[in-house]
Structures are given as structure tokens and as C-alpha cells.
Amino acid sequence: QVQLVESGGGLVQAGGSLRLSCAASGSIFRINVMGWYRQAPGKQRELVATITSGGSTNYADSVKGRFTISRDNAKNTVYLQMARLTVEDTALYYCNADGVNFGINNYWGQGTQVTVSS
To answer: What's the pLDDT at 1?
Structure first.
């Protein structure tokens, strides 16, 4: 069984920065795509950023130029460096792992709260 555990959320003032981490545990030798999604109150969950095992990245337009996703394949860990945060970034941020060990599977973490105050 694969488990994803996020950390690094918290309260920050607008314009500030936060770094989220997500570690995948279990019997893992490869994760195809890891990513971050977020869900604000009353809204649907949305893509923030994804990164493949080869390092190709994809970002939502709303975070391009402010957020940076990276991963450490040896540690099965993905990071999200967030800068110039705005109140619109306030949400529960979820980690996702897709295609673990070449399987057709998808896993989610429990989420970490990011709150940006004005």
C-alpha cells in the first residue's frame, strides 16, 4: 500500500513564501507522475503542478512564475516551493502520485492547509 504524507503548510502573509513536501512510502521503485492539487472552500479540486519522473513539469496558469515543483526520485518525495502568495492561494493542498511501479493507479495524500492572510 502506498501512503503520501504532506507537510509544510501553514499561515503566511500575502507576498510570503512556503515550501510543501510530500513523501511517498511503501514498496515503491518508481512513480510516474507526482503532483500537487488544491481545493478552496466551495470550489472544486484543481491542478497546481505536476512533475514526471524525468523532470518534465506542468503548471496551472495561476501559479506560473510563482510556484516551483521539484522531486527527489531516490526519496520518492515531491516539493512545492510557493512564492509571492496571495489570498487566492488559500486552500487545502493535496499531493498526488500517479502510475506507481508501472501500474494503473493513483494515490492521494490527506492534504495540508495553506492559509494566506492579507
So the answer is: 87
Q: At residue 112, what are phi and psi to the nearest 5 degrees?
A: -135, 135
Count how many residues are written for the chain: 118
Q: Which parts of the chain have pLDDT scores under 50?
A: none
The DSSP annotation for 16-75 comes to --EEEEEEEESS-S-EEEEEEEEE-TTS--EEEEEEETT--EEE-TTTTTTEEEEEETTT
Which among 91, 65, 67, 66 has a CA at the least distance from the CA of 11?
A: 91
Backbone phi, psi, residue 8, to 5° = 105, -5
- 25-41: per-residue pLDDT in tens? 999 999 999 999 999 99
